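hey so i finaly got around to running the thing on Cell division protein ZapA from Pedobacter changchengzhani. pasting the sequence first so u can double check i didnt mess up the copy paste, my clipboard has been acting weird all day
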Amino acid sequence: MGEISIKITISDRIYPLKVNTEEEEIVRRASKMINERIKDYQENYAVRDKQDLLSMAVLHYATAVLRTENKVQSQDTTVADKVDQLDVLLDNFFSK
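ok and heres what it spat out for the 3d tokens, dont ask me to read them lol
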């Protein structure tokens, strides 16, 4: 419920953070995912500069977030359209 101090490592650098106890696991998992993505890029591409690897990882995850946001927005629009259709059907039904 409160804040705790943790240390995470990203790309061989240690970052001390204060996080809510509920978010600790998420932050640790995110750090692990970033490190795995960097390792994957390092092994599969001729990129050795840590800054470039970090930039590629950030681009990967930012793109994934935007794709997810677009999908959620599209689903929200679809749900709203369905609700509007149901509303029209109910109006028609009760106005008879």
